[in-house]
Amino acid sequence: MRLHAWRTLQNGRTADARPVDWGPHISTGRVADLSPGLAAALGLQTDDVVRITISALRAIPVKPVKGAKRATPVSRTAPPGKPVIKQFIRSPNCSSRNVGTKIDKIVLHCTEGSLASALAEFQRSDSRKVSAHYVIDRNGDIYQMVNDADCANHCMGANAGSIGIEHVGSETDALAAPQAAASAALIRWLLQEHQIPRTNIFGHDFTPGYSRPGGTSCPDKLFGPAHSQTTIAAWVAAKV
After folding, report:
1. For 3-12, b where at least 16 C-beta lie within 10 A, e where not — what string?
2. How far apart are CA 104 and CA 194, in angstroms?
3. What is the mean pLDDT of the chain?
4. pLDDT tens digit string along 98-141?
5. Residues 45-58: pLDDT tens digits?
6. Do residues 15 and 3 lie in contact, with contact meaning Cβ atoms separated by under 8 Å?
7. Which of these, 162, 97, 104, 164, lies nearest to 133 by C-alpha position?
8. What residues have CB less than 8 Å from 116, skipping those under 6 apart?
9. Burial 31-46 (b: 16+ CB within 10 A, else e)
10. Count of other CB atoms within 10 angstroms of residue 203
């Protein structure tokens, strides 16, 4: 660095040196004091008021202090945002969660029919009164039908603390690639948004609290060829 110093009147003298004692000093409030050698070369006192001009004429390498630890880089990765919802189609088949009920699990379903039939079914108010929070089409479009804050009627006995995600497909379909990507993105957001453990993602038939375990083939073959929670967990580990 090049340091130029002046008294009240510029004395025209300059010298090259590293600045020392950068402050402000606790007792004096000064930003910097001159070293004795530099002050003498300029005909100044170490505590004279000076004006400092710094120009990068050359780089001065700084040797690392022996034994000093490198600072750990701070991750600036933003949390995942909620995927785009193509349309919110409100289902009447929902209810308010009890105050204080924590959303602590995600339940994965297969519609076993078309998108149109699933959307229509979840809007009917007949005796079944079924619904889900989200429906994901084969092309990756996501529809929301119940607010996260409310209970959907998707997994009898386990509705109170769960989010239900339906995936359009037949009993023998695997997830389409865009559908799998959309599902993984939505699940990542839900995990972050509601602080749900990754281990609490279940297939319908394997959800803790489900009142009829073994009573459905859902989620069928969407997440793998075997009807098991192990299949669901493997998919989550690979995709989410």
Report:
1. bbbbeeeeee
2. 7
3. 84
4. 888 999 999 999 999 999 999 999 999 888 899 999 999 999 99
5. 666 666 655 554 45
6. yes
7. 164
8. none
9. eebbeeebbebbebee
10. 27
